[in-house]
Each structure stands twice: as C-alpha cells, then as structure tokens.
Prior knowledge:
Layout: E1 2-7, E2 15-18, H1 29-35, E3 39-45, H2 57-66, E4 69-72, H3 80-93
Antiparallel strand pairs: 1-2, 1-3, 2-4
Amino acid sequence: MLCTIYKSPKKQYTYLFINKRDDFSDVPEGLMQTFGTPQLVTVVNLATKDKLAMADINKVKTALKDTGFYLQLPPPQENLLDEHKAQMKKNQEQ
C-alpha cells in the first residue's frame, strides 16, 4: 500500500498522507486552503512498515482506505504558564 506524504508550508509539523502522488481529489478544498501548497516529503509503502514516526499506522491505513487522505497534526504544545500556575497553587496548598 503506497502512500505519498506532503508537508504544509503554513503549519509546522503538519503532514498530509494521500493514496496517489499529486492526486488531492479526496482532500476537502477548505483543508487544502488551510494546508497551503503541499510540499512532497516522501512516498512510503505502508505494507512494509510496522509503525510511523508520529502517527498510528493503523489509523493512517484506515483513513486512506475510507476517506483517501490522513492529516497528521503536530502534538499539542505544552502550556508552561498553566503548568507553572498549577504548581504554584499546589505549593501554596501544602
């Protein structure tokens, strides 16, 4: 199962997986506008992979089969201010 991976020039660490190179027909127009002009990263044979670096390979395969694309978003950023506030509150309660 081949898939092509593109990165977004607009959103850091955001990747789009599709079934066929340069065929974005299954990707909604609104998503394409938000994603920006896709930049080719690589072509991967998912059949020979056990896992992917940042995505669950089974979710990718299912999404490609069901919708024709998979969007990998960056992991949520830590909010250091909220963590600091929580720690300060915890320290005051002790």
